[in-house]
Design brief:
Layout (H helix, E strand, L loop, with lengths): L3 E4 L6 E4 L5 E5 L2 H7 L4 E7 L3 E5 L3 E4 L8 E5 L5 E6 L4 E5 L3 E2 L10 E2 L18 H20 L1
Parallel strand pairs: 3-11
Antiparallel strand pairs: 1-2, 1-10, 2-5, 3-4, 4-9, 6-7, 7-8, 8-9
């Protein structure tokens, strides 16, 4: 099994995973826009037990909105997003652009919070708007990934 490595933009924060992510999706919510400074966030989601090595001493954490209780880390050096933790720290979220090798990542499976989009996206992925539908379908993708992992 190929290890997947992640880091912030300057490399001060490092993480290595023993398994591929359980999900990958694109989020257009206002919090992701504020956190990343981008129109949307393409993220890969891992489970904490997949962490092989983690050095995130250069990250500071903040909760942008309650709920959900997602702690979002930002590098103290480059000030870019480094890592996020959700579900009481058991879910690890990393910007897909910060992971390598990229060919080990699954393709994104859907767009969530599409009603908050800054620009239209012309791909064939399903697009969900509103809090309830976005949470429901992101949850389904995460649950499916967990179920496949447990086989």
């Amino acid at each position: 099994m190929m290890c997947i490595q992640g880091q912030c933009a300057c490399g001060a924060n490092q993480i290595e995973f023993s398994h591929p992510p359980i999900a990958r999706f694109i989020c257009h919510c206002l919090v992701c826009q504020k956190y990343t400074g981008r129109a949307f966030s393409d993220v890969s989601v891992f489970i904490r037990s997949d962490i092989k090595h983690m050095d995130i001493q250069a990250s500071t954490f903040k909760r942008y909105k309650l709920p959900p209780n997602i702690q979002r880390g930002r590098c103290r050096h480059c000030h870019q997003p480094s890592i996020e933790f959700g579900l009481l720290g058991q879910m690890v979220i990393i910007a897909s652009r910060n992971l390598s090798p990229s060919q080990a990542l699954p393709p994104p499976s859907l767009h969530i919070f599409y009603h908050r989009r800054v620009q239209d996206i012309t791909d064939h992925l399903p697009k969900y708007s509103g809090f309830a539908l976005s949470q429901l379908y992101a949850g389904k993708v995460l649950l499916k990934g967990l179920m496949e992992r447990s086989k």
